[in-house]
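Fold this sequence, please.
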Amino acid sequence: MSEVYANRRSRLRDHFNAAGTAAALVTRPANVRYLAAAAPHGAVLLLGGSEDLLVCAVPPDDRPFEGRPDEALRVQVLPARGGDTAVTAADLARSQGADSLAVEEHHLTVARHRAIAAVAPALRLADVGCAVEQLRVVKDEEEISCLRIGAEIADQALGELLESILVGRTERHLALELERRLVDHGADGPAFPTSVATGPNSGRRGHRPTDRRVEEGDFLSVCLGATYRGYRCEIGRTFVIGTSPADWQIQLYDLVFSAQRAGREALAPGAAYRDVDRAARHVLDSAGYAEALPPLTGHGVGLEIDEDPQLSPAAMGKLDACVPVTVEPGVHLPGRGGVRIDDTLVVRPEADGGPELLTITTKELLAL
């Protein structure tokens, strides 16, 4: 695996060297982990002229889910607590003879940027931009394997919950139960705060669980995800509580299901991001729900739950193979209820079977 991380750092080095910069400082935690195999709290990565250094505030922990630093990297721990790893790394770059340093300006605070400039005034500071994020878009098979396992864990946790008695339990209790099951089945933890919305609360986009209790006739909308070895997946499903869904619930669910299927079928290498969004959105727009739709149909996943690409109406760019994305259209009717169906998939060419579905919990409208 050390070769994988060395290759990633080499590709970033080619990028900033081509821009005329001698060294680079990576501070965004997900980017540090992508390049160094681990991102201990507060750690930064210096890609220097003579060697690469992982600069840590404290010695790296040995817990597997936090990752272990690439053995090819030298780890340098600050001599005393309270120091700034980024400032220390900039000073190390200066001592290595670098005359310029590319930094992640989109991640650094103004104060931290000024502190770097103050400790090494001879360094010309440049912006490396989102170069690491762009490298992260296409995943290798090891990364996809981690996402696949995370999806299996999320499916298992959701499936077990659906077999239990739900009526009378609160949204908050169900969310905590799901997160506990994720960990029980081997996840590092939840990929994001679990959402459970019942009845009229399912009509609120981005709803956070409350003490409202599940009642007969409710829509039950659940969105959860598992983190496995740092990689985060996502699944969302909507169910009906009771034995006989109302006609309006069936019609709304069938409509969202059709939109989600259209979005999934549009995933292919070379497909424009906006065209995937359009495929799903058109189904719902045509039914008169334009005002009730979320701003995007899906997004990339990986070391963060919301990565590039963004599948939205204004998004620029085209999909590549081996890019994991969500497809998650929904219709939210305030005060009444809503439906969201959310899967994590990996873009694959048609010759390889088309998009690979990672989250496999049934999308049939179940009455629980």
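The chain is about 35% helix and 20% strand. The domain at 1-135 is CATH 3.40.350.10 (Creatine Amidinohydrolase; Chain A, domain 1).
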